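Colleagues,

For the teaching module next term, I've prepared a clean inverse folding example: a structure given as tokens, and then the sequence designed for it. I'd like students to try predicting residues themselves before seeing the answer, so please don't circulate the second half yet.
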């Protein structure tokens, strides 16, 4: 029997083959435990005309049935590419307003940037000249954190302790030492450096 390849409709109208591996990567960035990750991917059955928003909604629904905390972490995680920019002030992470909104945050909210397990606090600078899937950082701060231009980062409005080994970390992660935020904000953001996408 011939295997059916489903296409995923992107937000800009482009189509690409549905690849479960990409879903696995996004679930890993959201800090899901391996068992839950495997169970969730197995439950997602693509259908003709599936778009990215519908896929995210379906994944969030599957997670919410078993672990609402995991669903929240997935819903508030986005993948961004780090770009070095002198326009980014020291201590600020410049992000497109639409991305800031998708993270449930506002200009000036606290963000945590990290590579591996050592987060550093920043503030969000909402700027329209930043591309939607990018975050601009000061070149000196990028060098201090050993983050290269073009490094893919996972941005989340929840602080996840990636060293946690439990199947269900606390719903809002570890918040020890987090700067207090204005009321109504979703919480701090933690950017995890992933594999570089540049040569």
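(Answer key — instructors only)
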């Amino acid at each position: 029997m011939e295997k059916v390849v489903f296409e995923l409709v992107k937000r800009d109208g482009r189509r690409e083959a549905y690849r479960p591996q990409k879903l696995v990567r996004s679930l890993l960035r959201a800090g899901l435990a391996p068992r839950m990750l495997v169970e969730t991917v197995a439950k997602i059955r693509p259908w003709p005309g599936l778009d990215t928003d519908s896929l995210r909604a379906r994944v969030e629904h599957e997670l919410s049935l078993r672990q609402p905390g995991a669903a929240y972490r997935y819903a508030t995680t986005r993948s961004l590419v780090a770009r070095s920019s002198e326009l980014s002030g020291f201590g600020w992470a410049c992000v497109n307003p639409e991305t800031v909104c998708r993270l449930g945050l506002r200009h000036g909210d606290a963000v945590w940037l990290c590579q591996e397990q050592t987060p550093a606090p920043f503030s969000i600078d909402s700027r329209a000249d930043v591309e939607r899937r990018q975050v601009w950082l000061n070149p000196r701060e990028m060098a201090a954190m050993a983050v290269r231009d073009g490094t893919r980062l996972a941005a989340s409005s929840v602080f996840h302790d990636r060293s946690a080994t439990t199947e269900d970390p606390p719903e809002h992660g570890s918040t020890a030492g987090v700067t207090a935020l204005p009321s109504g904000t979703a919480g701090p953001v933690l950017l995890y450096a992933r594999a570089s996408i540049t040569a």
